[in-house]
Amino acid sequence: MKIIVDAMGGDHAPLEIVKGAVAAARKRSDLTIVLVGKEEEVKKAAAQCGGKGLPGNVSLVNATEVIDMHDDPASAFKLKKDSSMTVGLNLLKSGEGDAFVSAGSTGALLSAGTLLVKRVKGIRRAAMAPVVPNAKGGMVLVDCGANAECTVEYLVQFAYLGSFYASKAMGLSNPRVGLLNIGSEDSKGDHLRQEAYQVLKEVGENGRLHFIGNIEAKEAIKGGCDVVVADGFSGNIMLKSIEGTASFLGKELKGMFMQGIKTKLAALLVKDGLTAFKDRLNPDTIGGTPFLGLQKPVIKAHGASSARAIENAVYQAEAAVKADLAAEIEANINFMKLDR
Amino acid sequence: MKIIVDAMGGDHAPLEIVKGAVAAARKRSDLTIVLVGKEEEVKKAAAQCGGKGLPGNVSLVNATEVIDMHDDPASAFKLKKDSSMTVGLNLLKSGEGDAFVSAGSTGALLSAGTLLVKRVKGIRRAAMAPVVPNAKGGMVLVDCGANAECTVEYLVQFAYLGSFYASKAMGLSNPRVGLLNIGSEDSKGDHLRQEAYQVLKEVGENGRLHFIGNIEAKEAIKGGCDVVVADGFSGNIMLKSIEGTASFLGKELKGMFMQGIKTKLAALLVKDGLTAFKDRLNPDTIGGTPFLGLQKPVIKAHGASSARAIENAVYQAEAAVKADLAAEIEANINFMKLDR
Q1: CA distances (Å), origin A180, targets A141, B73, B247
Q2: pTM, to two decimals
Q3: Residues A157-216 pLDDT 10s
Q4: N or C: which end of chain A has fewer CB within 10 A?
Q5: By C-alpha distance, which of B233, B137, B133 is closest to B180?
Q6: What's the whole-number mean pLDDT along residues A56-73?
Q7: Cβ contact, residue pair A244, B232, below 8 Å
């Protein structure tokens, strides 16, 4: 299997990206990794990875441009045809790789992924679907930022996409799908939610999805469902609120342990537990967020990705290739269309 | 000052409500409290408060009905004319009290408050605006559930309401107002946000509000602004995500400290810090959420309110009366209307 990695995307590119890709390649000789980026810079980064340059299962494709945060997301990949992102996605498109990983601009990756790799026929919009930690392990949050404005059909498709992904990525046989809402009753929320609820209820009754109804953010975090279906606006608000609260409380906790000798001793006594606690909430542990609905796997690693995050994103890309969601979507696409 | 308290609303009514009201009355002889509810039940609860029944500054108004979660929020107060909520709000309306506190159904309280106490003239919708803990102390989140569907004018009015409230309730001279969005750039979010951004930017340039632009949920939690302006749908998602994450992490932390003798010793060593940490996030500490935009203060205490939460909601009601937001809104209402 061949994973293409955008060496130039992200706050710590290219060094952390190259380090992460090299780490994955060293551990997994069965994987091939294609680094795409400015040749000189990637080589310089590779020299800092220990060993003699790039491992044998890592190749390098030169790309002279970089898409950055100042580029217009919608047109960047066209204007910068020799950017690492455009070149990498074209490699994926033409079959010279099985998946693409990038920590670059989310908007640019979404536009470029949609227009170059293309959506599965019948899918209206690609959606971002991270696995977010919750009290029962994790939940797929779909969409969480790709589509600020949604229709009922988008939400219904997100429900299917999230359910397929949770089955494959989390190994759940019948994922519980909830519609993110501000109350659990049928009538809650805005018109979009009320209408989507009725459609999803019918889909559930037909046995195509395990739809459990509306779910409040708090209940989802408690572990009330496996897939949270949201428009990209409120899904993003949920994701960022979880991240923000975890970070805020993490800092408060740190402050508590740093107060004096007694509390520092306490920190030593719970050291292992604290490490596990932090690890649980560390975005680097997960790696990245797939764009569901595209014909081939495209994984967005977060902008601040460390080497560890990139390494994990490579494994996630591998899992996505094995899962072959596109085939599952194609087999079910007729159920995923609304007659409107 | 006279605070009217709905003795029958909430999961732990009437006992916890009566206990909380009595506690406030005992501490503050300058306050008068009017308990509204089923006479016999309130008296029975009062007998469990220690002392000889209700203190001298607490009176009781009988109301034979109770609005519960099964009643239709929009019509409950009309169908149950002798409910504690309807009777209490009518007392407020007719000037027989200065503020009303209820832990009953949010929807029913909003409908009844809007139709009985009425909005300040020119205000399109009342909004819920709790002070939510964040890294810099707290932020006013407006709206957080009263209005699932919003127009640009609602959002602009929420910005003013939140700013007035933050000035008075939090003592801030020039509260930083942010528009909750999924990115900080002007162009981010849906049409509603893009349009609201432009209007708020102009309001800010005219010096009427300290508008700092779009704000992401994560940045707000870090303390990036004092007032978060949101539609009631995404505001509620943010609030519940914060509550859910805090509760989830609190439990994880507890699990960490309960693992063995070493970790239990650690818990003892950080006992004070842990108590302060929990207190910080305990909704009982704040008490309730005001409905901004009504002619008189109506405070929604949370459904699971303990006596302590009700006591704090009484003090919050007192602060709201002193703040006299309605007068400030009236003085500024011409700036709060959009010419559409």
Answers
A1: 9, 21, 19
A2: 0.94
A3: 999 999 999 999 889 999 999 999 999 888 899 999 999 999 999 999 999 999 999 999
A4: C
A5: B233
A6: 93
A7: no
3-state secondary structure of A37: strand
Question: Which among A150, A152, A176 is positioned nearest to A162, based on CA atoms?
Answer: A176
β-pairing, A210-215 vs A176-180, is: parallel
Interstrand relation of B298-301 and B99-102 (parallel, antiparallel or unpaired): parallel
Taking only residues 109 to 148 of chain A, the set having a beta carbon closer than 8 angstroms to any beta carbon of chain B reads 134-135, 145, 148
* Among the listed residues A168, A133, A112, A51, the one whose alpha carbon sits nearest the alpha carbon of residue A291: A112
pLDDT at residue B339 tops 70: no
Which tokens hold the place of A148?
């600020």
Whether residue B241 and residue A243 make contact (CB cut-off 8 A), yes or no, is no
Contact of B281 with B133, CB cutoff 8 Å? yes
Contact B241 A218 (CB under 8 A): yes
Q: Which two tokens stand for residue B63?
A: 């109301």
Read off the pLDDT of residues B115-165 as tens digits, 9 standing for 90 and up. Answer: 999 999 999 999 999 999 999 989 999 999 999 999 999 999 999 999 999
From chain A, pick out residues whose CB is under 8 angstroms from the CB of B245: 221, 241-242, 245-246, 249
Distances in whole angstroms, Cα of residue A265 to Cα of each of A260, B114, B185, B256, B260? 9, 55, 45, 15, 16
Q: Which helix (H) or strand (E) holds B33?
A: strand B32-37
List, in order, residues 6 or more apart from B64 with CB less than 8 Å away. Answer: B38, B82
pLDDT (tens digit, 9 = 90+) per residue, A139-166?
Answer: 999 999 999 999 999 999 999 999 999 9
Q: Residue B173: how many CB atoms within 10 A of its CB?
A: 6
Give the span between the Cα atoms of A211 and A335, in whole angstroms.
15
Q: List the Cα angle B335/B339/B340 in 5-degree steps.
A: 140
Nearest to B128 by CA among B248, B235, B18, B243: B235
Tell me which residues of chain B, numbers 164 to 183, contact chain A at a CB-CB cutoff of 8 Å.
180, 182
Q: What are phi and psi of A247, to 5 degrees?
A: -70, -45
B267 touches chain A (CB under 8 A): yes
Contacts of B281 in chain A (CB under 8 A): 249
Do the Cβ atoms of A201 and A195 come closer than 8 Å? no
Q: Is the pLDDT of residue A53 over 70?
A: yes
Question: Average of pLDDT values for B178-189?
Answer: 92
Calculate mean pLDDT across residues A24-38: 97
